[in-house]
Amino acid sequence: MTDFTLWDIVRNLLFALRWTVLLSLVSFVGGGVIGLLVLFARIAKRRFARLPAKLYIELFQGTPLLMQLFLVFFGLGLFGISVPAWLAAGVALVLWTAAFLGEIWRGCVEAIAKGQWEASASLGMSRLEQMRHVILPQALRIAVPPTVGFSVQVVKGTALTSIIGFIELTKAGTIITNATFQPFTVYGLVALFYFALCWPLSLTSRLLERKLHVSHRHH
Amino acid sequence: MSLIAITDVRKSFGQTEVLKGIDLDIEPGEVIAIIGKSGSGKSTLLRCINGLETINGGSIAVAGVHVSGEDRQLRELRLKVGMIFQQFNLFPHLSAGRNVMLAQTVVKKTPKEEARRIAEEMLDRVGLGNRFDALPEELSGGQQQRVAIARALAMKPAALLCDEITSALDPELVAEVLQVVRKLAEEGMTLITVTHEMNFAREVCSRVVFMHLGKVHEIGPPEAVFGAPKTPELRQFLGMQ
């Protein structure tokens, strides 16, 4: 049996870390784009647009991410579509992220005073123009801290994809543990890597919140 | 033809009927004050005129355009009537000048330089020509309200609706806003103002509408309404009992 040095473990984990980062980025960007669509549908004037968006959000917020992963991974298999683990992981995480971001952003849009809608409407702006020029620029400011904060959940959420066999950081940890029989060292390092990804994000979120709060006090 | 024709307008919020058949015709250049107790429906009437509230019955026409819920028509209507709110409602992320420019460029597709020129002219008109780049938070309430007036004027409306535009202001700032409105009235702008400023109504308005329980209770020139109120409700409202 070969001996594993600490560097061997770190090296292999680092190799897998990039998949965690990539999956997080894809989920966050993809989830952001779809989340924006969900937001627009969620605050639409027409009921038939609002209702499906609401249902979508409730469904994804009301079920465990792991079940969503299983459903995408095994569910599509039922229709004869064989889904590679990376694709199932990406699709499920994008949809999951979109639901949460859509809801976070809805809260930010609704935090904008009603008078802003009325004033822009009274100037003849259409709903899209109101959103584009008046509401979103203001909502964006308050949306940044919770959005960055949520990205931490996305990063940690990617760990679940190890269960369907996607070899990211956690899965790599498991594989290495099976070879080295050093679970504490390996998983300790895995946790450290996650922390190294998430901590700067939390810190940024808090920093932005404080900065925003200060500029808000000038009102 | 009257500029604004209001015929048998009814409006309910849930079970409560707030407007119970309002008839009012307003000619170009008229300055109307709508007075009455809170809850009499005066603000609601104003908001119905530019479609912020949809009416449940009757009709409102502004320069021949009927107020309906249809989006394109609403837009056309809102180009004809500007509105100024109690809470100013300036866009806080834009400078005073940009506030005045925004709808010109977005709604009317006015070229940027032209919109800027108009914005400067309008800010000048309300005495804020030197505050183009100031953010709303850097302005006093009175100044903010004057920017709001400039913003509405920049769209070149045929009439301005003023919804208690001095009610949120500190007493010492009321005069500067009323002075701007007075000047507009003298220049011939059609104004419909919901107001608690009785002196202003008396001195500036051509007609005063007293609303009571969702109806036009008394209407007439200020001398008649303030000098010889016919109904006990108006006398009580004016504190003449």
Written overview of the protein:
The complex is a heterodimer of chains A (219) and B (241). Helix content of chain A is 82%, strand content 0%. Chain A has 219 residues and is an all-alpha fold. Chain A has one domain: MetI-like fold, CATH 1.10.3720. In chain A, helix 1 runs antiparallel to helix 2. The model of chain A has no long low-confidence stretch (mean pLDDT 91). Chain B has 241 residues and is α/β, with parallel strands linked by helices. Chain B has 9 helices and 10 strands. In chain B, strand 9 and strand 10 form a beta hairpin. The N and C termini of chain B lie far apart (39 Å). The interface between A and B is medium-sized, with 20 and 25 residues.
Keywords for this entry:
heterodimer; A: 219 residues; mainly alpha; MetI-like fold; 8 helices; 0% strand; B: 241 residues; alpha/beta; Rossmann fold; 6-stranded mixed beta sheet; 4-stranded antiparallel beta sheet; 38% helix; transmembrane helix (chain A); transmembrane (chain A)
Quick structural gist:
Chain A: It is found in: Cell inner membrane; Cell membrane. Chain A has 219 residues and is mainly alpha-helical.
Name of the CATH superfamily of chain A = MetI-like
Mean of the pLDDT scores of chain B?
A: 93
- Beta-strand residue percentage of chain B: 15-25%
The major pleated sheet of chain A works out as:
none
For the record, the CATH class of chain B is Alpha Beta
Put simply, the count of helices of chain A is: 8
Mean pLDDT of chain A: 91
Please write the string of helix (H) and strand (E) elements of chain B.
EEEHEEHEHHHEHEHEEHH
Number of domains of chain B: 1
Cα gyration radius of chain B (Å): 18 Å
Tally of distinct domains of chain A: 1
What share of residues are in beta strands of chain A? Answer: under 5%
Low-pLDDT windows of residues of chain B:
none
Distance between the termini of chain B: 39 Å
The strand line-up of the biggest sheet of chain B is 6-7-8-3-9-10
Structural class of chain B: alpha/beta
CATH topology of chain A: MetI-like fold
- State the end-to-end CA separation of chain A: 68 Å
Low-confidence stretches of chain A: none
Domain ABC transmembrane type-1 (chain A): 17-205
InterPro entries (chain A): AA_ABC_transptr_permease_3TM (IPR010065), ArtM/GltK/GlnP/TcyL/YhdX-like (IPR043429), MetI-like (IPR000515), MetI-like_sf (IPR035906)
GO biological process, one term (chain A): amino acid transport
Pfam families (chain A): BPD_transp_1
